[in-house]
Amino acid sequence: MIPLPDLAAIVGIALACALLVGALGLLALRLARRSPLMVQLLIVVATATLSVTAGMVAVAQAMYLSPHDLLASVWVAVSAGLVSLGAAIVVGRAFTRQVAHVRGLARDIGDGAPVEPPAVPDRSELASLQRELALASRRLDDARAEVEALESSRRELVAWISHDLRTPLAGLRAMAEALEDGLADDPQRFHRQMRLQVAHLTTLVDELFELSKIQSGRLDLTLEPVSLYDLVSDAVAELSVLAAAHDITIRESPDPEHVVVGDAGELSRVIANLLINAIQHSPPGTEISVTTQAGADGTATLSVVDSGGGIAAADLTKIFIAGWRADASRTPAPVTTGGGSGLGLAIAHGIVKAHDGEISVTNVPGGCRFDVVLPRALVA
């Protein structure tokens, strides 16, 4: 049994030696802070071993430990230190390999190569980091795909709009030259045709301006309770002549009780664009139905169903891309037939999104159905 005063002296001497060697070890770590992790691990193990050895030597100098016991203790400390250094080297090399692997994954992410999570369940920090890198890789792949799709859409839109502008402008120029040279056998017909072409160009410019506001986030909405019944009735009345010209019947059956929160003018544009799209792609003698229904989550759904034969599965994801057209021809139909620039559905999509709503398209027997989901208004 060691007397309490001697025990206190031994603890004090050992603590002083540990603090001194520990301070030297911290200084060494600070100097080696930019060195590999292997070097820093070896400094930590060497500091612990030297701290124990220095404490035993100091205790022996204070006559609390015999020379024989000191020698035995030193050999024990040295043996333990060598084993600890070996373990540190093994751990350091394993950590270095893992770090090199993670560095390679980061390089793969930068190069756009796919990164997979660890195949074997692993709870280590580096395995967790690898899983996060795999998630980041997938998100970056999705972002790259989205950017590429948007860039491709932008290029196609510029090409299509350039074509759509060039066609009526060429017609206007030819008719203007014919009128100027006195070669027009029916000037009134030329004037009517020029007016139609100008109306088409005006519509195209208006749609481009609307799309630019939507894409730049500058679409100003005046939100108020709006009746879907009134919006549908007005849109159907406005497009009844166009539908009759195509021998198409629009059958409307909206519920008068469905009131949503939105901008009446912009939502009217959404409904009109959906109806025009349905009229363009429905064969003569068919009908288009417009219905509304309430959702269980505080929403109302407006559905437009046409008889246009449906949309190819590969094109369902492209239907709301600006400028995309399902047909091979890029030439818009004349204004009198309701032809558009390929921007109508993209504008409808942007307006619905600005209302915190959702718009989707699905194929149904004989055609397709567009669903617009909007938040319902709280009616007292």
Relevant terms:
single chain; 380 residues; 5-stranded mixed sheet; two-stranded antiparallel sheet; 8 helices; 7 strands; 61% helix; elongated
Describe what this molecule looks like in 3D.
This protein is an alpha+beta fold and 380 residues long. The protein contains eight helices and seven strands; from the N terminus they run H-H-H-H-H-E-H-E-E-H-E-E-H-E-E. Strand 6 and strand 7 (367-375) form a beta hairpin. Helix 3 (67-111) runs parallel beside helix 4 (125-180). The longest helix has 56 residues, at 125-180.
Number of helices: 8
Record field, number of beta strands: 7
SSE string: HHHHHEHEEHEEHEE
Overall 3D shape = elongated
The span between the termini is 87 Å
Strand order of the largest sheet: 2-4-5-7-6
Percent of residues in beta strands: 5-15%
**Level of helix content?**
55-70%
Tell me the layout of helices and strands.
Layout: H1 4-31, H2 37-61, H3 67-111, H4 125-180, H5 187-215, E1 224-227, H6 228-245, E2 249-253, E3 259-262, H7 264-281, E4 287-294, E5 299-305, H8 344-354, E6 358-364, E7 367-375
Parallel strand pairs: 2-4
Antiparallel strand pairs: 1-3, 4-5, 5-7, 6-7
Helix pairs in contact: 1-2, 2-3, 3-4, 4-5, 5-8, 6-7, 7-8
